[in-house]
Structure formats: structure tokens, C-alpha cells
Design brief:
With about 280 residues, this protein is an alpha+beta fold. The chain has one domain: Creatine Amidinohydrolase (Alpha-Beta Complex), CATH 3.90.230.10. Strands 1, 2, 4 and 5 form a 4-stranded antiparallel β-sheet that branches. Helix 1 packs across helix 2. The model has no long low-confidence stretch (mean pLDDT about 95).
């Protein structure tokens, strides 16, 4: 495997800016979600919000992808194409945003979250919250000197302990002025294996967690990935920068994700979620 790019100071400034935009876009989507809207409505929200900020949506025309965002509902694992499908009460939906800033030859910021549409079933709630915690645990082991396999080990150990499975087919990836680069970041694996993590590396962690088996199928549109057994799937993602003692979350949000982090049952992690500051006593 070719070595991963180590970001320069200029790169880091660019990645911070695009990370903030991607995070803001995802929050905007969360604030707009409602039963009855279509996944194409979400695409319009993302597309217009991005262009208004002199950026561009990375998925549009990427290897022929026809839309500006990926919308993956219920048993869709990833790469769902927005269209006329209406969101229904009880659905779960992953919205995967990647922004490019500036629009021409810019940096890429990649983030996603799974949202609840109305009241979820117990099974939907379970897989979403396992996926949320999986991202937090994977992020927590990243530091210089650790191994990429440590990330997958942390995620797989937790997800399987909760009766879920980790998709093998898709991984996290290096990201900067290139959408997908080294290192590949599997969300399963063995501790102490894989490439060495170094300060200045930038990559995504984006575990896809299935309620059933980890096997997936691809639909005839050549993009949409679904669980082979029809079980529910959920995913959360951040773009992170490796620092001298841990990570900087480049797609960190400045407010709670509506329809996701605002539920009483969510277990919010300090790395992957927005946690309101505790008011100090006077």
C-alpha cells in the first residue's frame, strides 16, 4: 500500500474550513427532516446549501453518481440515490454529505449520520445507537503510534457484542484534496495490525453496522448497497486529523443533530457527538 499523505499547515487550514461546512450541512439537513418529504428533497437542500457557500457537492457526477448526496433508508447500507421515495414514520435514514471547498480544486470534507423519522422501532433504535457508539470507540483509539487495525478491532468487538455485524465491503479512507486516498480504514480487524498511524494523517472513520449479517447486495442502479438479508443498517462518519496526542475532529458539529442526537435514549460520545456545555454554578 502506498503511504498516506501527511497534511501541511495549508492543507489543515483547508480541511478545517471544509469540515465545518460539511458539518453545518448535515445539521441543516437534520433540522429540515420530516415524514412525507422525499429523499430528492434532501438532495435539493444539500445541493443548494452547498452552492450558496461557494462549494460543490462531491458526490455529484463522481464516477457517474447522479445526485449531490447519498440517502440510505432502512436496509440500504450506503450510496442510496435520492429520488421520489417518501420518508415514513419509523424510518431510519443515513445522510452522507461530502463538500468540496473551494469548488474548484478544493479540499474534501466527509461526514454522515443516521436520523430517526418519528418514533423508531426497538430494533431500529438498537442498530442506530450501536452504530453511533461504534464510531466513538473507533475514534477513541486513534493516536500516533497506533495501528489502523486498532480502529477496526475496537468497532468490531463492540458491535458484535451487541448482536450486530460490521460491513466488510466498504471502509474509511484517506481524504484531503483527493476524495478517496490511502489509508484504507476497515471497521473490523485485529489489534496491532495494519499501517502505522502518524501525526498529520487525515482519514474518515465510517462504520456501517447491520442488525443482521454483514453481507451486502448491490442493486441494478450500480450504486445502492443493501443488506443481503433485508435487515436494518445504520452508519455514522467523521473526518479526523491525527494530532501529536490524539485527533482533531474536522467535521465536529457546533450544535446537536436534530432527529438523531436529541433523543432521550442517545448515548452521546464526546468525540463524535455534540454535547452541550454544562452551565457553571455562580
Amino acid at each position: 500500500m502506498a503511504s498516506a499523505k501527511i497534511l501541511s499547515t495549508k492543507d489543515i487550514r483547508g480541511m478545517r474550513a471544509v469540515g465545518r461546512l460539511a458539518a453545518d450541512t448535515l445539521c441543516y439537513v437534520g433540522e429540515s427532516l420530516t415524514a412525507g418529504m422525499t429523499t430528492d428533497d434532501i438532495n435539493t437542500l444539500v445541493h443548494e446549501y452547498t452552492l450558496e457557500r461557494k462549494a460543490r457537492p462531491a458526490p455529484l457526477n463522481y464516477k457517474g453518481f447522479p445526485k449531490s448526496v447519498c440517502t440510505s433508508v432502512n436496509h440500504v447500507v450506503c450510496h442510496g440515490i435520492p429520488g421520489p421515495q417518501k420518508l415514513r414514520e419509523g424510518d431510519i435514514i443515513n445522510v452522507d454529505v461530502t463538500s468540496v471547498l473551494p469548488a474548484r480544486a478544493g479540499w474534501f470534507g466527509d461526514t454522515s449520520a443516521t436520523f430517526y423519522i418519528g418514533k423508531p422501532s426497538p430494533l431500529a433504535r438498537h442498530v442506530v445507537e450501536v452504530a453511533r457508539k461504534s464510531l466513538e470507540l473507533g475514534m477513541a483509539v486513534v493516536r500516533p503510534g497506533a495501528r489502523i487495525g486498532d480502529i477496526g478491532y475496537a468497532i468490531q468487538t463492540f458491535a458484535e457484542s451487541k448482536g450486530c455485524s460490521v460491513v466488510r465491503t466498504y471502509t474509511g479512507h484517506g481524504i484531503h484534496r483527493v476524495f478517496h486516498d490511502n489509508p484504507s480504514v476497515p471497521h473490523y480487524g485485529r489489534k496491532g495490525t495494519g499501517p502505522l498511524i502518524r501525526k498529520g494523517m487525515c482519514f474518515t472513520i465510517e462504520p456501517m453496522i447491520n442488525l443482521g449479517h454483514y453481507a451486502v447486495d448491490h442493486l441494478d442502479d450500480d450504486w445502492t448497497v443493501v443488506t443481503e438479508d433485508g435487515s436494518l443498517s445504520a452508519q455514522f462518519e467523521h473526518t479526523i486529523l491525527v494530532t501529536h496526542k490524539g485527533i482533531e475532529v474536522l467535521t465536529r458539529r457546533d450544535r446537536p443533530l436534530q432527529h438523531s442526537e436529541d433523543k432521550p435514549w442517545t448515548d452521546l460520545g464526546e468525540l463524535s457527538c455534540f454535547i452541550p456545555p454544562v452551565a457553571s454554578e455562580e
